[in-house]
Structure formats: C-alpha cells, structure tokens
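From the shared-data thread, chain only:
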Amino acid sequence: MRKKMGIRYMGAARPGVFAPLLAALLLAGCGDAQSTFLENQKKYARVRGAMEEKSSVLTRTLTENGLSVSDLNILIVAYKDESILELYAKSRAEKAYRPIKTYRIAARSGVLGPKSEQGDFQVPEGFYRIDRFNPASQFHLSLGINYPNSADRRRSHAGKLGGDIFIHGASVTIGCLPITDDKIKELYLYAVFARNGGQSTIPVYIFPFSMNDANMNTFARRYAADPSLVAFWRNLKQGFDLFMTNKIPLAVAPDTNGHYIYR
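Structure, as tokens:
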C-alpha cells in the first residue's frame, strides 16, 4: 500500500490552462529560481489536472484567510483517533499559523501508539516534515513523511523500522494517511505552492488524538497498563500544548531515549 513509484516527466504543461493561479504568481514577481519547482510539477498530468480542477477552491480559501499562492507557508496536523487532518497556513512574514482547512482521514491501519518497526501496520506519531513529492503515486498524488526520524531511530530497538509513509489519495492504507483522490489534489497543491515560494521545511505533526487535558487524562487511564506508551504521549503533549498556545513551528530534538526535547 505504501509503495513509492519512480518519478518520470510526462511532457510539458499546456499554455494558458492555469491562468488564475499562475497570474497570482507572476504578479507577485516570483523569479525563475522560485518557479522551477512549480514548473517541474506541472510536467505531470495529475498535477495539471489538479490545478484545473482545484484552482478556484484554493484561491477562494486563501483569499478568505488573507493569503495567496505566491506568499504561502503551510503546516499539517493529524489526529489519528479523530481521523482528522488539519491544514494550517500563514504568509512568509507572519510568525503564527492559523487553521484554514480540515480534511477527513479516509482510513487508518494499526492502533493508537507510535510506529516502531517495519510491518507493524502503525501510523507514526511525532513531529515530522514533508520530504518527498510524488506526482505519479500509486495513490494518485502523495506527500512523503520523513519517518523514521531521529527520535524514532533512538526509541525503537527493531532491526528494520520501515518507511515510505505518505499522505496520499484513495481510501485504503497500510500505515499512511489517505484523504481520498479528491482531497489530495488540494493538499498537494497547497504544498507545491508553499515549496515553490521558498518553504523548504513543511512540518507534519501526527498526534494519537487531540491532546487537550481531558483527552490526555482519558487515554492515560485507558492505557494505564502500558506506562511507557503513556509517558511517550505525555511527551508529545508538551509539543501539542506549545504549538496550540503559540501556533509557531516547534524546534525539537530527541534525547537519548527518543523522547522529544522542545527548544
């Protein structure tokens, strides 16, 4: 389910097809260096199709939030138990993000708790970033997550930790976050425009549940027989609280046991 397909260029984009979005980019004065990523993505039929279909949706959502495709940073937050993926955004000059869109996660494998090894069917939990754009995915379009990160590697004792975790289309998965073909078109384009505008790191925070105090207490009681898991969640909750208070991207590093240190 998580197989990553090779990337091949599939011909040039047709001129004039993406006028609303590209006009905004040109008016903002994006130079050739910044537009290279977008131009490369447009060589793929699925990206061109997404732009044709979703340009009005993106423009409307961004305009309503005082943003544009040419001045955009994004951050993604997912909650496994609620099956929700939230898109946060801001302009490049702003410090704090704000939520602008919510998507339903269409399917989930495994149970609550972090991914620790290859073949455990788990969706990761922790603080990640987008590390791959796959415009020719087996699941329409997909955004790769940098699992295992350094914290995962220190926390797990497995010989093989697995990998190829994506946010993708479709409604089936093993360890990934599918949001249907229709909705991945939107999210993929938000990520493309953010990267094209210079955002080199797109954070992805994956939580087991919305980690407010009430939920944390409920799940701590429910999983009291697994104190190491509860301790891991309490460590994640520190990051959850920091982000929800300030809406500023977290600076994190792992300790020797694979728990997060927040700076």
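The first strand starts at residue 73 and ends at 79.
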